[in-house]
Amino acid sequence: MLKLKTPLLLLTFSVLFSSAIAQNSLKKIKVQGNQFVTEDGKVMVFRGLNVADPDNLHTKGHWEKAFFQEIKNWGANIVRFPVHPSAWRKRGKTEYLKLLDDGVKWSTELGLYVIIDWHSIGNLRTEMYQSDNYETTQKETFEFWRTMAKHFKGNNTVAFFELFNEPTVAGGQLGTCSWEQWKTLNEEMIGIVRAHSNDAIPLVAGFNWAYDLTPVKENPINAAGIAYVSHPYPMKNGGKPWENKWPTDWGFVAKKYPLMLTEIGFSGAEEVGAHVPVISDESYGDAITKYTAEQGISWVGWVFDDRWAPRMFSDWNFTPTRQGKYFKKALLEYNSNK
Amino acid sequence: MLKLKTPLLLLTFSVLFSSAIAQNSLKKIKVQGNQFVTEDGKVMVFRGLNVADPDNLHTKGHWEKAFFQEIKNWGANIVRFPVHPSAWRKRGKTEYLKLLDDGVKWSTELGLYVIIDWHSIGNLRTEMYQSDNYETTQKETFEFWRTMAKHFKGNNTVAFFELFNEPTVAGGQLGTCSWEQWKTLNEEMIGIVRAHSNDAIPLVAGFNWAYDLTPVKENPINAAGIAYVSHPYPMKNGGKPWENKWPTDWGFVAKKYPLMLTEIGFSGAEEVGAHVPVISDESYGDAITKYTAEQGISWVGWVFDDRWAPRMFSDWNFTPTRQGKYFKKALLEYNSNK
Amino acid sequence: MLKLKTPLLLLTFSVLFSSAIAQNSLKKIKVQGNQFVTEDGKVMVFRGLNVADPDNLHTKGHWEKAFFQEIKNWGANIVRFPVHPSAWRKRGKTEYLKLLDDGVKWSTELGLYVIIDWHSIGNLRTEMYQSDNYETTQKETFEFWRTMAKHFKGNNTVAFFELFNEPTVAGGQLGTCSWEQWKTLNEEMIGIVRAHSNDAIPLVAGFNWAYDLTPVKENPINAAGIAYVSHPYPMKNGGKPWENKWPTDWGFVAKKYPLMLTEIGFSGAEEVGAHVPVISDESYGDAITKYTAEQGISWVGWVFDDRWAPRMFSDWNFTPTRQGKYFKKALLEYNSNK
Ligand SMILES: [Mg+2]
Ligand SMILES: [Mg+2]
Ligand SMILES: [Mg+2]
Ligand SMILES: [Mg+2]
Ligand SMILES: [Mg+2]
């Protein structure tokens, strides 16, 4: 229904390019009740690893298949790409899409599913953010998902679109945003994705830096086939003991909807990169892997890098850090049981 | 009531310039019931031609009185200037106003009324558009009308301000916009124009690329003295037969308000520039000119150019295309009967 | 609760810098009922002077302690810094903060309180403004107050944050803004400031270029500890006689809330810079100083400069103009009585 008013000889090649990347060697993932299932009905629990921003990895010279092979070697079945708005703008849409296409291709070849994560932190309503690299606008965020939806339509590897990494008003320093307003913004993004007939599962987070999902009880997102997200770092909501907080702060959601903890991780207080709210020890690892296994909740460790914190390895021989050792073992064990 | 806080010696010449262009040799057009009338009470039905963007015409070397003379020769009594937001920004306000001033001067001399059309396509609420040349913001759109209102105040030739060419959410790909939200945006623009005591008649379009006016029945724009717009290209809403669609999709509006089809046109499937939704033949021309004549509806053919499609002529000797022949004859016949 | 995901060795020095400027030699100002009081309970009525934009003064070579000494010599106990959005952007945050830090330091040394004023004129809702130097966005305005709140936290000299100089829709030329919408924008800004534990008193203005406070009667700003503002220039609302207008247009507010006239001033019709709405004579000075003294209303004369109008002095020997003579005498008399 679009009318051509551009000069007659001008053609658009976007259709050709966007369909070329669809490589459907992985089974399509769908939402069924409170679970993720493959198109042929197998229940999937995802456990995997976050990487640094693809732009950053490319600059460091590590955006290559060997890196994805190592993620696979650690036992992951999913990888999360945190696309920082500042990196997206710096590299530009065309060049950044090439990075994503490469990462998705290697993931497909290795049998890893992919989460594309719009990695902002702050208040999308007032467009105020925690720091400069998280700066974006509603318009840019909507356009990002329009671009992703069009570009990865029909690609089963890109199974998840995490709409906005960590919503927060930072105690009011970033202005106000009600759950109702946040819900409306998410529904707008989901509508844009689905109007492109892209079946990626939208992942929706709550406030307090993607920790708090309590409003979902009374007022869930008005869209079927989505999943929720929490980032339950060890020091959130007062920290240990976690058992009496996790179920009511976010875990209850898993009774009704698929739930994915797209960032978990810890750092010993003595380690480089230790900071609030991640300081803890292996007891956190035990608690979170046990609770999620019992509830069928998926998780993704933060972060498979030597610099971003808390880090999983200390050098590019992939020498595991303390949490690296913990999560490598956990990934290999839990995912081999599936 | 404006306070001067600028350096004392700084003066503004804008008042001098803006009044200089007011050339009132054409009679002022007003809304009376469901009709356009001249200030002395003569009913007017407008039938004319769209041109390409004035910026584009100027670049091609055709923004000259001879071009307007040809429009007049074809029988038009009105000409529509589609100002693309991208062209407006590229050329800049001052230089673009010079183009408009020239076009308005030649139109005045030839007795042609002018529609200034903010030629965007998309969703002004989310600020998402069909393609780059249609990109704008609410702020830029409001400022455009503030500028037009101030600049053309008292100019009878510039009888119409078409507030936004083709509103559409593209099936949700551009996000959502309710009729109520669209109505509010139009009322804001109308308020800005009229606060400048500019009496140009605001033209308001509906969704589906300015095709659908059904919400006007229950919930019209809250402003007197306006007119509505539809762009009923031949393939809209399933195409032929049109007779059972046009009256209910948009034609009913003409019983109560003035109505102007600011874009109509067709292209044989064999012609250059043929595309959805314009492919049809002379039977479309017969149907639309007959229906509009019966209902007193004004119309403007798209597009008096050799490149933009569907085109009216094939070279700058103004050799008519198939639809060019059709509309040249129609304009000369219908407008001579008035 | 902020997570560090930046490279491990990157540190932020902002905490060091922002606390360095807190010099608490002046007593903290608070709101108590309809009055300003010092932290030890002394009622304060502020009477002082506006300066030109600090950026402008610095460019002219007059942003120096001697200039502030002269303000003190004229009897002021407060000085208002009108930060124009265009100047803020041009100089940049870091450099502009240095100007403010210098001005605040000299003010502290001389015992002058400071109002930081976001000096825009227009409609913050539609983001349409009176002229280019007042252009800003909601986002930029919110970020400005976020920056001010963080930077001047704990600084008693910076006792007032005037959130938006002169709100106006210019009779609709700048679109619409209801009092409810304006109230919401102010409450958002107040929330941002207070989330940073900054105790500066927010100053809130009404429409008609900060003249009209009538909506406060039925629908005050929903925040404790704030004060209201009016700019009752002599020709507002029809001009003289003022006695039957001031109490109902804005003066009534002082019965319930602290009120500060952050701009008053006049110019003889014969003087350079005379313009609507400031043309008047000493009778205006007598009326406004008497009425404010009776009601305990604070005021700040516009403007302690040789170029901005109406000006207080005619050269940089600080030779008083007609209103300069008037206000120098008024400041010295009224403030010495306190
Ligand atoms: Mg929060
Ligand atoms: Mg995070
Ligand atoms: Mg069109
Ligand atoms: Mg106003
Ligand atoms: Mg003022």
TrEMBL record, chains A, B, C:
<keyword id="KW-0326">Glycosidase</keyword>
<dbReference type="Pfam" id="PF00150">
    <property type="entry name" value="Cellulase"/>
</dbReference>
<comment type="similarity">
    <text>Belongs to the glycosyl hydrolase 5 (cellulase A) family.</text>
</comment>
<keyword id="KW-0378">Hydrolase</keyword>
<keyword id="KW-0732">Signal</keyword>
<feature type="domain" description="Glycoside hydrolase family 5">
    <location>
        <begin position="40"/>
        <end position="305"/>
    </location>
</feature>
<dbReference type="InterPro" id="IPR017853">
    <property type="entry name" value="GH"/>
</dbReference>
<dbReference type="GO" id="GO:0009251">
    <property type="term" value="P:glucan catabolic process"/>
</dbReference>
<feature type="signal peptide">
    <location>
        <begin position="1"/>
        <end position="22"/>
    </location>
</feature>
<dbReference type="InterPro" id="IPR001547">
    <property type="entry name" value="Glyco_hydro_5"/>
</dbReference>
<protein>
    <submittedName>
        <fullName>Glycoside hydrolase family 5 protein</fullName>
    </submittedName>
</protein>
<dbReference type="GO" id="GO:0004553">
    <property type="term" value="F:hydrolase activity, hydrolyzing O-glycosyl compounds"/>
</dbReference>
